[in-house]
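Hello Y.,

Per our agreement to keep a running log of every chain we model this quarter, I'm adding this entry. I've kept the format consistent with earlier entries: sequence first, then predicted structure.
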Amino acid sequence: MDGGADDYLTKTFSATELMARIRVALRHSYKTAGNKTQTVFSVGGLSIDLERHQVNLDGEKLHVTPMEYNLLALFFKNIGKVLTTQYIINAIYGPGYGSDTQTLRALMAALRRKIEKSPAKPRYILTEIGVVYRLADE
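Predicted structure for the entry above:
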């Protein structure tokens, strides 16, 4: 710990304990300089307020389902990063869900219909080669 580690696990440990420690580490990684967690993110005219659980598009409040909100929040927390379909499925549905990409594609299509002027030519959530997605970081 004196060498710079934040945490450690000794053998044998449970998967539950490992996942809990990973979640704590992720929470700490979202902290900003003033020890405050950033709650409002925006790209172009699209913004999300994590504290108020609200999505806005061009200044107008946008109604999204809880799953669409979770997906959008995941993208904003990883803005500009390429996220694999399996990473998204694990983050949104949980690690025990499997690898049903069709459900994710349907959710993505529904979200794009709400946030994109032309869902066929997305401006915000871009599809990268290899069936992965990323939120544009304009």
